[in-house]
Amino acid sequence: MSEKYDIDEDEAELFRASVGKVRPLTRSRVEQRPQPPAPRARFRRQDEAEVLRATLEDAPEVEVEPGEQMFYARAGVQHKVTRKLRRGQYAVQQALDLHGMTVAAAREATAHFIRDCVANDVRCVRIIHGKGLRSAEATPAIKSRIGGWLARSNDVLAYASARPADGGTGALYVLLRKKY
Fold first, then answer.
1. What does pTM read for this prediction?
2. 90 in a structural domain
Protein backbone atom coordinates (compact mmCIF):
# COMPACT_ATOMS: atom_id res chain seq x y z
CA MET A 1 0.00 0.00 0.00
CA SER A 2 2.77 2.38 -0.64
CA GLU A 3 1.93 5.47 -2.56
CA LYS A 4 4.11 6.77 -5.29
CA TYR A 5 4.94 10.38 -4.96
CA ASP A 6 5.16 12.67 -7.90
CA ILE A 7 8.59 14.20 -7.67
CA ASP A 8 9.81 16.78 -10.08
CA GLU A 9 13.02 15.76 -11.85
CA ASP A 10 14.72 19.02 -10.80
CA GLU A 11 13.94 18.32 -7.14
CA ALA A 12 15.26 14.78 -7.43
CA GLU A 13 18.49 16.07 -8.96
CA LEU A 14 18.82 18.67 -6.20
CA PHE A 15 18.30 15.94 -3.56
CA ARG A 16 20.95 13.66 -5.10
CA ALA A 17 23.44 16.54 -5.25
CA SER A 18 22.90 17.47 -1.60
CA VAL A 19 23.11 13.87 -0.36
CA GLY A 20 26.20 12.99 -2.35
CA LYS A 21 27.47 9.51 -3.07
CA VAL A 22 25.80 6.76 -1.08
CA ARG A 23 26.16 3.02 -0.97
CA PRO A 24 23.62 0.51 0.21
CA LEU A 25 23.99 -1.09 3.66
CA THR A 26 25.52 -4.56 3.66
CA ARG A 27 23.76 -5.56 6.90
CA SER A 28 20.35 -4.79 8.18
CA ARG A 29 21.47 -4.71 11.86
CA VAL A 30 23.56 -1.98 13.45
CA GLU A 31 26.33 -3.23 15.75
CA GLN A 32 26.31 -1.63 19.17
CA ARG A 33 29.42 -0.71 21.10
CA PRO A 34 30.10 -2.88 24.17
CA GLN A 35 29.17 -1.44 27.56
CA PRO A 36 32.08 0.32 29.27
CA PRO A 37 33.25 -1.30 32.51
CA ALA A 38 31.65 -0.12 35.73
CA PRO A 39 33.55 2.70 37.44
CA ARG A 40 35.69 1.76 40.44
CA ALA A 41 36.88 3.93 43.24
CA ARG A 42 40.59 4.47 42.64
CA PHE A 43 41.80 4.21 46.21
CA ARG A 44 38.99 2.22 47.85
CA ARG A 45 41.00 -0.93 48.53
CA GLN A 46 43.92 1.07 49.92
CA ASP A 47 41.60 3.15 52.13
CA GLU A 48 39.87 0.04 53.48
CA ALA A 49 43.22 -1.56 54.27
CA GLU A 50 44.37 1.59 56.07
CA VAL A 51 41.20 1.75 58.18
CA LEU A 52 41.50 -1.93 59.08
CA ARG A 53 45.18 -1.51 59.96
CA ALA A 54 44.38 1.52 62.14
CA THR A 55 41.63 -0.29 64.01
CA LEU A 56 43.84 -3.31 64.62
CA GLU A 57 46.80 -1.22 65.80
CA ASP A 58 44.84 0.46 68.58
CA ALA A 59 43.58 -2.77 70.11
CA PRO A 60 44.51 -3.00 73.79
CA GLU A 61 46.23 -6.02 75.26
CA VAL A 62 43.98 -8.18 77.44
CA GLU A 63 45.31 -10.52 80.09
CA VAL A 64 44.65 -14.03 78.83
CA GLU A 65 45.94 -17.25 80.32
CA PRO A 66 47.43 -19.85 77.93
CA GLY A 67 44.55 -22.33 78.39
CA GLU A 68 41.73 -19.77 78.61
CA GLN A 69 38.74 -19.94 76.24
CA MET A 70 38.03 -16.85 74.13
CA PHE A 71 34.65 -15.68 72.84
CA TYR A 72 33.16 -12.55 71.26
CA ALA A 73 29.92 -11.81 69.42
CA ARG A 74 28.90 -8.51 67.89
CA ALA A 75 25.53 -7.11 68.98
CA GLY A 76 22.74 -8.59 66.87
CA VAL A 77 24.38 -11.96 66.20
CA GLN A 78 21.88 -14.65 67.11
CA HIS A 79 22.54 -17.01 70.01
CA LYS A 80 21.94 -19.99 67.70
CA VAL A 81 24.74 -18.77 65.41
CA THR A 82 27.23 -18.32 68.25
CA ARG A 83 26.35 -21.74 69.69
CA LYS A 84 27.07 -23.37 66.29
CA LEU A 85 30.33 -21.42 66.05
CA ARG A 86 31.48 -22.53 69.52
CA ARG A 87 30.70 -26.15 68.65
CA GLY A 88 32.67 -25.93 65.41
CA GLN A 89 29.63 -26.71 63.27
CA TYR A 90 30.47 -24.21 60.53
CA ALA A 91 32.74 -25.42 57.74
CA VAL A 92 36.13 -23.73 58.00
CA GLN A 93 36.89 -22.39 54.52
CA GLN A 94 40.33 -20.84 55.12
CA ALA A 95 42.97 -20.93 57.85
CA LEU A 96 45.80 -18.66 58.98
CA ASP A 97 48.69 -19.83 61.18
CA LEU A 98 50.43 -17.09 63.17
CA HIS A 99 53.01 -19.34 64.89
CA GLY A 100 56.49 -17.87 64.97
CA MET A 101 55.39 -14.36 63.96
CA THR A 102 56.07 -11.19 65.87
CA VAL A 103 53.07 -9.26 67.19
CA ALA A 104 53.41 -6.66 64.41
CA ALA A 105 53.69 -9.29 61.68
CA ALA A 106 50.74 -11.22 63.13
CA ARG A 107 48.61 -8.05 63.22
CA GLU A 108 49.43 -7.28 59.58
CA ALA A 109 48.85 -10.88 58.46
CA THR A 110 45.51 -10.97 60.28
CA ALA A 111 44.36 -7.70 58.67
CA HIS A 112 45.25 -8.91 55.16
CA PHE A 113 43.73 -12.33 55.77
CA ILE A 114 40.40 -10.91 56.96
CA ARG A 115 40.20 -8.43 54.08
CA ASP A 116 40.96 -11.11 51.48
CA CYS A 117 38.46 -13.55 52.97
CA VAL A 118 35.65 -10.97 52.98
CA ALA A 119 36.50 -9.97 49.40
CA ASN A 120 36.29 -13.63 48.34
CA ASP A 121 33.03 -14.18 50.26
CA VAL A 122 34.58 -16.60 52.77
CA ARG A 123 32.33 -16.79 55.83
CA CYS A 124 34.11 -18.96 58.43
CA VAL A 125 37.87 -19.12 59.04
CA ARG A 126 40.25 -20.51 61.63
CA ILE A 127 43.11 -18.40 62.97
CA ILE A 128 45.78 -20.36 64.79
CA HIS A 129 47.48 -18.00 67.23
CA GLY A 130 49.05 -20.53 69.57
CA LYS A 131 48.61 -20.95 73.30
CA GLY A 132 51.64 -18.86 74.22
CA LEU A 133 53.30 -21.57 76.27
CA ARG A 134 56.74 -20.68 74.88
CA SER A 135 56.17 -16.93 74.82
CA ALA A 136 59.08 -14.83 76.09
CA GLU A 137 56.57 -12.59 77.85
CA ALA A 138 54.70 -13.65 80.98
CA THR A 139 51.43 -13.80 78.99
CA PRO A 140 50.73 -15.15 75.50
CA ALA A 141 51.82 -12.31 73.19
CA ILE A 142 49.53 -12.83 70.18
CA LYS A 143 46.66 -14.50 72.00
CA SER A 144 46.30 -11.56 74.38
CA ARG A 145 45.97 -9.13 71.46
CA ILE A 146 44.12 -11.01 68.72
CA GLY A 147 40.78 -10.80 70.49
CA GLY A 148 40.95 -7.01 70.45
CA TRP A 149 42.08 -6.93 66.82
CA LEU A 150 39.17 -9.07 65.72
CA ALA A 151 36.56 -7.34 67.91
CA ARG A 152 37.47 -3.94 66.44
CA SER A 153 37.15 -5.13 62.84
CA ASN A 154 33.76 -4.43 61.27
CA ASP A 155 34.20 -7.56 59.14
CA VAL A 156 34.14 -9.90 62.17
CA LEU A 157 30.72 -10.95 63.46
CA ALA A 158 31.91 -13.39 66.13
CA TYR A 159 34.79 -15.58 67.23
CA ALA A 160 35.21 -18.48 69.62
CA SER A 161 38.00 -20.80 70.73
CA ALA A 162 38.27 -23.85 68.53
CA ARG A 163 37.48 -27.45 69.44
CA PRO A 164 40.46 -29.46 70.73
CA ALA A 165 40.74 -31.27 67.39
CA ASP A 166 41.17 -27.92 65.59
CA GLY A 167 43.67 -26.33 67.98
CA GLY A 168 41.66 -25.81 71.16
CA THR A 169 42.53 -22.65 73.06
CA GLY A 170 45.37 -21.98 70.61
CA ALA A 171 43.01 -21.27 67.71
CA LEU A 172 39.85 -19.32 66.97
CA TYR A 173 36.88 -19.92 64.72
CA VAL A 174 36.01 -16.54 63.20
CA LEU A 175 32.68 -15.77 61.53
CA LEU A 176 32.94 -13.02 58.90
CA ARG A 177 30.29 -10.76 57.40
CA LYS A 178 28.95 -11.21 53.90
CA LYS A 179 30.48 -9.25 51.08
CA TYR A 180 28.37 -6.25 50.09
1. 0.64
2. yes
